[in-house]
Amino acid sequence: MAETADTEPGRSLACRSIPLGEIEPARSRHMWTRSAVHVAADGDLVVTGEWDGTVTARDADSLEERWTIDHPDHAVGIASFEAGASDDGEETVVVAGRGDSGAVAAYDAATGDRRWRYDTADDIGTAVTDTVFNLPYVVALETGTDTDTDADDTARLYAAARRYERDGETRRWDSTVYAFDADGSVRWTYETDASPIALDLDADGERLAIGYNRCLGDHDTGLVVLETESGNLEWTWDPGTEGDRRVGDASFDGDSIAVSSHGDKRGYLLGPGGAERWCVDLAVGTDVDGERLYAYPNHAYANDGRVAFVTGNTYAVGSRETENRHPNEHRVAAFDADGDGLWDDAVRGFVHGLAADGDRLVAPCAQNFRVRDPDTHALRWFDLESGAGGVVRFDGIATAAAVEGGTVAAIEEPVAYHDDGETRGEYALRVGSFE
């Protein structure tokens, strides 16, 4: 690496905050996604989604409530788009659900009135047991522009939904990726028996990348690229590793796609057709005190010839329990267009979801469950080119973040480590403004 830093970023940020009510504290290990936040209207509107289904839109400056609604499921993902010429460019907020229906629903950004709803459980099936992991789950949303220039509504929404079931030793995923028009009509679907984890759209709105992190059935490739107008398959790529772990994230940059590989714990930059331009070791198997340790590269972000990857928790080969730590766990590493290292730094805790706007990366950092150090609870941000950034510390854990137009928003959730009995933090929205 050209530059490595294990010190905390130097700048802080004044945040406005407002409580979000009650939620069960997280425990030592990170929990599933229970909250969502999105910044819309060029940074003027902040929308939160809560585990009980409450969705609330607030003014970004005052945090005054503009509207609140009840989504049919747990509200775990939010996106927005402008509806297009036929609706005078009015903005729409879309909410992804995890629950009985796996609902995708669109709401008027100004009023909260529901414009349409689609239940993905009609396609992927309903939960076979009453556990969170089995619920239909809209895991990703992506918005873009219709490539059909004759369309009245130019906005297009893409959503990936999945459902898991297990019967004894038999495990199965069912999933569908959707292309929705602005009015909620389905343009096309792409169905597999694998587990999607990420979507990304190229700058022209012509290609959609789908990352699959678990491939247990007939679908046996980690990355799929579709033509957006028709949903036709353009090409696929896979790390070629044994087992069902494949891709953690994918991010377009021009005609390139950055991919974080769960299969071999490396980062890749792919060109057209999936040609491998370069790959880098991120958290590959490493011997520490007689154990073979690794960590998953969970996030990738590419912009203007630079790529960043973020790694997660340490695991041991053959066991999920270890007292040791992989040297590259919980780190962000950035590379140039040739795969040469620019900088890397510690994020210190588990990053549920990486937010980005241009060259700014925002990482909501939850607990490091092997260390259980409350100092890891923070919102951290980095410049993609230089690594410069800052930090806002939370008493609880930061589990979701969004950034747009100089406005940054994050969700804090309370946490109670199993071995000290203290509940830290609260369920709250934190909002700040970059200069």
UniProtKB/TrEMBL annotation:
Coiled-coil ranges from the UniProt annotation: none
Pfam families according to UniProt: PQQ_2
Limits of the Pyrrolo-quinoline quinone repeat domain: 52-237
InterPro entries reported for this sequence: PQQ_b-propeller_rpt (IPR018391), PQQ_rpt_dom (IPR002372), Quinoprotein_ADH-like_sf (IPR011047), WD40/YVTN_repeat-like_dom_sf (IPR015943)
Signal peptide per UniProt: none
Entry protein name: PQQ-like domain-containing protein
Organism of derivation: Natrinema salaciae
Upper classification of the organism: Archaea, Methanobacteriati, Methanobacteriota, Stenosarchaea group, Halobacteria
